[in-house]
Design goal:
Elements: E1 6-10, H1 15-26, E2 30-35, H2 38-52, E3 56-60, H3 68-78, E4 85-88, H4 103-131, E5 134-139, H5 152-172, E6 177-182, E7 187-188, H6 191-195, E8 204-205, H7 206-218, E9 223-224, H8 228-239, H9 242-270
Parallel strand pairs: 1-2, 1-4, 2-3, 4-5, 5-6, 6-9, 7-8
Keywords: Oxidoreductase
GO cellular component, one term: membrane
GO molecular function: oxidoreductase activity
């Protein structure tokens, strides 16, 4: 079944991105799904095409590489794709003491979480203004509201996403372009393991987060925070002195980081 509705989603192979892609597919959107793992993206495309009879285009792109976002935009535009909705979901983290973390990973994080998101938002929103409307969902984090020792660059990058999204939402509303920003807390996905830390207990499922995000986006909500606990956490972060918040977050992230290293060591000893 063909559709006139279209969405491009970055980081769509797993986690929140995959669950959001599924929701759009169920609503018969034409999808462009973007990520680094082409095999996984192809599997997702085949699944959605069979289950939901929608059009799915796969683009393998590592948006942590310089100029990758510009290349992606031109590639998709050249195909005649119409940007009704953009979901900037792709993001990475790296846990550990800042002076010890890998510089290249820090740069890749900034390139992906900030630079590529900004580029895609700018280029796509300009098209949407010309078209007369559209929606963009930028994925930040509850960490955007607080300093994050042991996760310093990641938290800072998400603070940028939140502030940036709120600002341009104000600018673009008169042009019919809706900007929403999703601020999830700990979410069960591959993110924690890739970032080098253990998963937080009682983390929300990616499916639950995606359902809240989808509903919020469709209702033109500016800031979407899934779950009462996350809403309360954000409120406390606003009320407490930032030094106190940093101490609390630092203890939590340090333990997650150290537990991850212990698990790796134990697995090596058992092998």
């Amino acid at each position: 079944m063909s559709s006139n509705k279209s969405v491009m989603i970055t980081g769509a192979s797993t986690g929140i991105g995959y669950e959001l892609a599924k929701l759009f597919a169920q609503d018969k959107y034409n999808l462009v799904i973007v990520g680094r793992n082409k095999q996984r993206l192809t599997e997702v495309a085949e699944e959605f095409t069979v289950k939901y009879s929608c059009s799915v285009t796969v683009i393998q792109k590592d948006l942590s590489n310089q100029n990758a976002a510009i290349d992606l935009f031109h590639e998709v535009s050249a195909s005649g794709f119409e940007f009704d909705i953009l979901v900037n979901n792709a993001g990475i983290g790296s846990c550990g003491q800042f002076h010890e973390t890998d510089l290249c990973k820090n740069i890749e994080m900034i390139e992906l979480n900030i630079t590529s998101l900004t580029i895609l938002t700018k280029l796509v929103s300009a098209k949407m203004v010309t078209k007369g409307g559209g929606k963009i969902l930028n994925v930040a984090s509850t960490g955007a509201y607080m300093p994050g020792p042991y996760f310093a660059v990641y938290y800072a990058s998400k603070a940028y996403v939140l502030s940036f999204s709120e600002a341009i939402a104000n600018e673009l509303r008169d042009f019919g372009v809706v900007i929403s920003v999703l601020c999830p807390g700990a979410t069960i996905s591959e993110f924690a393991n890739r970032a080098g830390k253990t998963e937080v207990k009682n983390a929300m499922s990616a499916k639950t987060v995606a359902n809240v995000a989808y509903k919020g986006l469709m209702n033109n909500e500016r800031i979407i925070i899934p779950g009462l606990a996350n809403k309360c956490g954000v409120l406390l972060a606003k009320l407490m002195p930032r030094q106190v918040t940093a101490n609390i977050i630092g203890k939590v992230q340090k333990k997650l980081f150290e537990d991850f290293r212990k698990d790796i060591k134990n697995n090596r000893n058992m092998s």
